[in-house]
């Protein structure tokens, strides 16, 4: 442990961008944390860079590049939704190339892959079929769902999300990720479970984090976008985790 506050790197999910964390950036920075919100290639303000060959490794390189260029030390990687895949991959890469740089990992209603898993591997067949069909129509991209349906955000916030969401690169959807799990196991790991309503595709991870050792699990009674619907609660959990790693 250290009395130096770790830096926090926020990794958005599919269709998002660094913009999605806007409501929690100020409170975390006011608490004394250096905070960076990456935008993955092909999403957000980088949507003009979307191309068919973007895959998980492209997005891992986005996060690793930010950590290296900002010369961060004692980093907490925070992944939301699909961003949990990216945060895990970036953690593995950083453990290999910069041992000791990571302080912990936080997953905000996010995917967590064991070695050999992938983003869409455990999705129900009907979900996979619908997404493959959509990707074929959008040049290997995945259009965003309507944020007003099933995400427990206000009508105003749903409209805000719908305006900003972009088509997400699809190359990583059926891609598996093989890695040395021993690189992740020693790291403190927090899972923030958004339970009302619970986002269906996160169900396998909810089960996993309650059955396997090494996880701290907390719940927020909100939908899949707590940085939008309950930012104060999300900040409190992230601050608590980061504060404990600073002791």
TrEMBL record:
Matching InterPro entries: AB_hydrolase_1, AB_hydrolase_fold, Sec-Metab_Biosynth_Hydrolase
Domain of life: Bacteria
Keyword terms of this UniProt record: Hydrolase
Record flagged with keyword Transmembrane: no
Any one Gene Ontology molecular-function term assigned to this protein's record: hydrolase activity
AB hydrolase-1 domain location: 8-236
Annotated PANTHER family: AB HYDROLASE-1 DOMAIN-CONTAINING PROTEIN-RELATED, ESTERASE_LIPASE_THIOESTERASE DOMAIN-CONTAINING PROTEIN
Entry protein name: Alpha/beta hydrolase
Source species of the chain: Microbacterium sediminicola
Lineage, broadest ranks: Bacteria, Bacillati, Actinomycetota, Actinomycetes, Micrococcales
